[in-house]
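G., the chain you wanted modeled:
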Amino acid sequence: MPQDRWEREAAELGAVVEGPGLVRLALSTPTLPPATTTNHYLVGCNPLVLVDPSAPAARDQLRLLQALQAASELGAVPTALFLTHHHNDHAGAAAQLGRATGLPIWAHPTTTQLLAGKVVVDRAVLDGEVVARNADGAPWLTVFTPGHAPGHLALHQPESGQVVAGDLVAGVGTILVDPSDGDMGLYLQSLARLEALNPTSLAPAHGPVQRDAVALLQHYQQHRRAREAKILAALTATAQPPADLLPVAYHDVSRLAWPLALRSSLSHLLHLQQQGLARSVGAGWVRA
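Predicted structure as tokens:
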């Protein structure tokens, strides 16, 4: 694929070439504020996959079709729509774009189950599989990274060190680990696993690509563990509902964000319980 022509074509579509085999197109989706868009990534060349088709508007669907067509005309081989996980701001337009392009949808088996009745996944993708290759043959490998969602997959290009991180990190806002389908312990393990890959950049689902990748992953882990320590310190021998812990554990967070903080605190409490440091008593929590 001629790189200079591809960069011009991408710019005309409002997309950005972020690195070898990586183009980012931010499109409006029904996501959590302060984010307003989800990054759609064209990854690789032959084969090429489109990551997280989720933009519902007809004009954005057209831009995605134009991007795939432009890549194809320059020698790329669009092969599949790839889902990092099942949340609507990542998979909400997959069925629609799949019908429009004829491309199959690929996702982790757990994501397949969670999307049952909404999206038909054509291929189950496991950890360590090659799903795309750059023009020079360099592979993009899947990395199983549960925690934010149980079937979450990232993509890693070992030669360049690039990682398409999905919702493991954010370039704008923060990452919610909701107890309804998230797991704080697994999330921390997934951050550590990405750090061990020594990535050079992290391409998040929301916001700009992050270049100081290792430092960011370390910061995320330190921040979560510090927050968890505050929650543990707020627990006593008397059962308290999680909402009563917020003034102590989330004193540095705007009260406008406390509804989300409450969900996150529940995930931390469950993680503390897994470690034998806290336990639930009725509707409250105590230090174990």
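The chain has nine helices and 14 strands.

Shout if anything looks off.
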